[in-house]
Hints:
Helices cover 58% and strands 0% of the residues. The longest helix has 62 residues, at 3-64. The chain contains seven helices and no strands. With 267 residues, it is an all-alpha fold. It has helices spanning 3-64, 69-89, 96-115, 120-123, 126-161, 165-171, 185-188. The chain has a domain at 26-188: Up-down Bundle (de novo design (two linked rop proteins)), CATH 1.20.1440.20. Helix 1 (3-64) runs antiparallel to helix 2 (69-89) and helix 1 (3-64) runs antiparallel to helix 5 (126-161). The radius of gyration is 24 Å and the shape is rod-shaped.
Amino acid sequence: MGPIEIILIVLLLVVVGVVGWGLSAYNGFIRQRNLIQESWRQVDVELNRRYELIPNLVETVRAFAGHERNTLEGIVRLRSQAQQLSSSEHGEVPSAERAQVEEQLTGAVRGLMVSVEAYPELKSNQNFLELQRQLAETEDRIAAGRRYYNANVRNYNTRIESVPSNMIANQFNFQKATYFEVNDPEVRSTPNVSFGEISYRGDAPAGGGATPASGQLGTSAPNELPNPQGQERGSIQFDQQNQFDQQPQPADRPTQYPDATEPPAQR
């Protein structure tokens, strides 16, 4: 075998290797993009569950707290906008507009639940307490889904920016996904949507006050992807007099997902 034949064989092997790597990288981007969309649908299911609970919550609060009319009207308006955006997107690629509306809706519901502390009769209403419990569970599942989604977005974006996989991303127009962020500092500082007084991790100081703990609460065109953000869980409990009690919990109980490809448990 002459030197020319050896050079041709080497060039052929190099070409085959490059083509094989390119196909593998392209398929990897497709898998990760589909995983991001799938993980968003898990959040979308829980967001729609929240849409179903909000009308009953509004009617219950209206019956006991008529002075909260402006807040209730704002929640109804935001819920209607978010539901329309969800229907138009068919659960596929959430837009930045929907992300903003969902953020505003979360803040409005949170503000309402703080306001109802001034209405003892409402706080003792069994229908309201049950709605409060269901909303708390829904928010927990939304938070878990957002953490899983954000982990997948992080891995996908890292590959898009890394060399040499960024060449495949640029060639086939794979766009970076964005996180579903909450920009309200007050929402970021609380571990959950506040249903009444918030029970924080740690021991309560003298006088019955709660000790704050840090927490977070947490989509685009055909080639853009959604962007939810995670949130730490809070705990809310009532005593027999229908008031919130401080429940100490272990300080180190973070919820972690060791592998972004493993979705959170479905309830």
